[in-house]
Amino acid sequence: MDANDESPEFINTPYIVQVPENTPSGSSIFKIEAVDKDTGSGGSITYFLQNIHANKFTIDRHSGVLRIKTGVTLDYEKSRTHFVVVVAKDGGGKLRGDNKVFSATTTVTVNVEDVQDTPPMFIGTPYYGYVYEDTLAGSEVLTVVALDGDRGKPNSIHYCIVNGSEGSFEISNTTGAISVIKSPNHLKKEVYELKVQASEVSQEGDVSVYAFAVVTIRVVDLNNHPPTFYGENGPQNRFELTMYEHPPEGEILRGLKITVNDSDQGANAKFNLRLVGPGGIFRVVPQTVLNEAQVTIIVENSAAIDYEKFKVLTFKLLAIEVNTPEKFSSTADVVIRLLDTNDNVPKFSSDYYIARIPENSPGGSNVVAVTATDPDSGLWGEVKYSIYGTGADLFLIHPSTGIIYTQPWAVLDAEVNSKYNFYVKAEDTDGKYSLAEVFITVLDVNDHSPEFNENIQEKTMIIGSPVKIEAIDQDAEEPNNIVDYSIMQADPANVFDIDQSTGEIKLKSYIRSLDIIHNITKNKDCIWSLVVQAKDRGSPSFSTTAVLKIDITEETLHKGPMAAFLMQTKDNPMKALGVLAGVMGIMVLITILISTAMFWRNKRSNKITPVRRIIKKRQTPQPRAVRMEWLKFKRPSNAAEKFVVEDDAKSLQNENSNNNIQVVPVPPTAPVPPPPPALAPRGDAPGWRVPTVSGSLTPKFINKQLKKRGHGSAHNALVSELKMKFEKRNAAIGEPHI
């Protein structure tokens, strides 16, 4: 069965799409395609976008067709490039028993193409011009400037005067210069308002869009002078300066030597100064001038003066009169060329890098290449790489290329350590640096052979029960550490079976007794030598063989846990010895505890517990056979019936070693101890007990003890009855009184 072990892969990457900015919303712009080598649900692919809410695009989850979102339009002037992250995910499936889902990502670069959809824009409005009474016909009055609003592929601009000229002025259709074509003496009006049209002309010559501006031209009969800019060598309309990026805010651009002058007098000599260009970067001082002033330009936004953004900054310095009806004005170009400084830190292409390397890779093998860039120019943009951290000992990095490789002596072993983690540093010549984290996984390779246990050489097999062998493969992952077992050689061959997975060896099903085995072989000791093999499932596969001796025996007649244990530990006698020693120790401990408990119980009890026979003492030196009854205890109805004397069926052996009787007596049954007496002893004397003695008993001694103790009538009656029974018995057999 096909397992879900493949990830989707995008084909025909990288994806770069050119899309005109006027493409309608909802239009299809590209089709992403990914393939998955798995079958079934593991091979089916669905697509979706990351950050879909912030995206201008959407994707069909089944076909992979990328579209512009409904209601969304592209605008080249606002954003020229979009980066769309596409995720391809398979349908999931089983892998080693678990349900796995794999995915892959790619980035689609969408470049927005400029389309002529923005009209031209006039620069420097409003426009004012002056025609003096001494102006010559054909003289240029002023120039209007318009630019195509589409900056990607700008069209050329065509200028024309729509109305308001009355035949007195003309404009260059290419440059926008307006000239007076009549002598000022023939001009009928003092103020002319010209409506100028700027049209975009395509490469094919077609006029597409246009814009209008109003130009006010005054005719004066006074010889007024516009403000004029001067450099160190006279009038000048272009000033240049070279400076380092990011100067301090408030700094004066002292390299610019600019003076402005208006030769008129009084109110006609008052004018304002301003900078036209990217706003908020510089400001001009003074802003209002009377007659003449030194122009000072001051830094206002240091961050915007960035070499990596603008290598050249261009402004127009405009001087325009304030209180005159003519509003004379003049301009000068200010060009600032920037020099680079080391103001940027090297930046990695990713915050972390993930790599994998097989454990059998030789020393010096490449692992992963990291990349960091520094937008600074020259030596400041050069990056040097280094690594550090506890996991970096086995690795090196090329200081210039960022390639990480293993030490020449490094030996990677997934069984010892399969994960390495350390940091890589990208540093410029001034010591500015950034860090990225590196994760390296050592992939397991089948480089170990299975190894058998040490006690595999000999096994004892009971017919009907298997024996088991075991081999261990030190590889870290499956299938490299999965072991299969087989019998390589056995004589005769058709005797044993082995379980491929567990290593259990058992006899063929038809072998149920030693007689069958004796019919198979002449080897009477029933010991077989097998060559067994343990083989892993890696690629390439490794195997190990061993010789196993099996002693076959039948099940012992003694059944039970002890017999089974002894058979199982036949091959390991020290184990059996240790277990038996432990059992004996437990039994001794239990015996001691029981004896101690019995001792204390008897010591505190009033029971009479005779444990020895009463031997009669002979009065004559003649050896005779002594017969003696056993004392048997019955449950008495009263205290006097606690003892009953019965005759033995056979004579007992002479206990005094006179060897007159050679008959071996039958051991009597142990008497049952009687219950304790119902009568309580006197408070002034301890309870009476019959002590255990190891010798002959005499009635005199007993009488003395009774007299000394002075027991109650119940005890006295018991002893008297016992004495009478002894005397009656002796009189019946003709033996002397004890």
The class by helix and strand makeup works out as: mainly beta
Question: How would you state the average pLDDT, rounded?
Answer: 79
Number of strands: 50
Model regions low in confidence, pLDDT < 50 over at least 5 residues: 611-617, 623-715
Largest sheet, spatial ordering of strands: 22-21-24-28-26
Indicate the radius of gyration in whole angstroms. Answer: 60 Å
Strand content: 35-45%
Distance between the termini: 102 Å
**Portion of residues within helices:** 10-25%
Instruction: Please report the number of helical segments.
Output: 5
Major sheet summary line: 5 strands, antiparallel
Region (Disordered): 655-685
Protein name: Cadherin-related family member 1
Domain Cadherin: 11-122, 123-229, 235-348, 349-452, 454-563
Biased composition (Pro residues): 665-679
Polypeptide structure, described:
There is one protein chain. This protein is mainly β and 738 residues long. It has 5 helices and 50 strands. Strands 22-21-24-28-26 form a 5-stranded antiparallel beta sheet, with no helix packed on it. Strands 23-30-29-25-27 form a 5-stranded mixed beta sheet, with no helix packed on it. A hairpin with a 5-residue loop joins strand 38 and strand 39 (433-443). The model is unreliable at 611-617 and 623-715 (pLDDT under 50).
